[in-house]
């Protein structure tokens, strides 16, 4: 019986996990540029950096996580060898609360800190929606007054302008969860057993900018289909509120540009019964105080505005909440003109540290979505304009040890003078390959030295930018080879100075 042919092993398919993306050099540099500008503002306000690990014990991440046997709804979780559940952090706020509680005796309160890092969401990815993304947070822990919330809003406004976003192209919108909680009480969802349903209501109202009033009405009721009509696309289950409950919630989020007196607003717009909620009134009075502080500091409604449609979807917020919104239009994936929208937000979370310490430790802070803000800045032409120059390339004509040492010495001399440089590391047999590499790499200058040049103490410099310009006017290959466009000879001893001059001229 003939031997069966052995099957070739299948090649492993290279693929990135769904909802995760690789980052290019340009993206990394643009991010670093943006983070540097944000950091300058935070430092000016007196905030200091801190860093927490990517993993936290799951029970430390907060009550907004579901309590299941395998807690992986919303977060990525693994079980440690001691059978404790750990999860990749969902945001940077809950880990900070754990850090403060763990070090409460060493930390000086109020504790003013900032940090940036990756966060992870075990959610369905989509266009522009990833499972791993970067946030940049600032928080004040241990400050009970709304002046700390007002300062956060002013710092958000200053950050937008430090990034080159003009006044009129952004606004910081402010609301208060006490107002929202008062409404939840009024519609019968104020107790602990309704916590999950209450969160569904809050997350539904948070979709106002995306889906409009009618879309939110559906989410507060039976649910919403993604398609243009019922039965099309994915279905999002709703909060199951009655029509009276839905209209009460919608009455709140329809209110814009609040003016004092708040008691008249509540009685006239929302009804006397709702206006009698002490929690609701406290929330409005805190908003009035924030408005007075920011206006007194010159941050009028063109920069910071009270807006009761702002929700923030996380359960742990307890007081003022705020969002940084960009007001200019962009074209979405469907070719439609839409307002860019939110690039960050936050609020007061007085209960997070208390979960660990049993003591009241007030806190407030905000988070910037780094990737989303970077997209906005690129749309405005405010980021990535100063691209890093590709390295100068030293080509390899001879590969004996002595020649390789000489080429590497050129590279090291250039690097020592602060010039990006590299020696060609591929197969040096085909010189045309080296030139194609330099062209694809975007190298501004190519350095060429064969044995004859080395003997005579010379080096050939090829100006790749000028060479391309000259080459465009040359019709034949013979003429091109004879002309050597953009190429000239210099003394080897003046290499660094000549490269500096040429780079300056190219710039």
UniProtKB/TrEMBL annotation:
What reaction does this catalyse? tRNA(His) + L-histidine + ATP = L-histidyl-tRNA(His) + AMP + diphosphate + H(+)
Which residues are in the Aminoacyl-transfer RNA synthetases class-II family profile domain? 38-391
Predominant location of this chain?
cytoplasm
Family annotation (CDD domains)? HisRS-like_core, HisRS_anticodon
Arranged from A to Z, the UniProt key words for this protein are: Aminoacyl-tRNA synthetase, ATP-binding, Cytoplasm, Ligase, Nucleotide-binding, Protein biosynthesis
Listed GO MF terms: histidine-tRNA ligase activity
Compartments where located: Cytoplasm
Q: Which InterPro entries match?
A: aa-tRNA-synth_II, aa-tRNA-synth_II/BPL/LPL, Anticodon-bd, Anticodon-bd_dom_sf, His-tRNA-ligase, HisRS-like_core, HisRS/HisZ, HisRS_anticodon
This enzyme's EC code(s)? 6.1.1.21
Q: What is its quaternary makeup?
A: Homodimer.
Task: Indicate the family of this protein.
Answer: Belongs to the class-II aminoacyl-tRNA synthetase family.
Name of this chain's protein: Histidine--tRNA ligase
Naturally occurring in which organism (per UniProt): Ahrensia kielensis
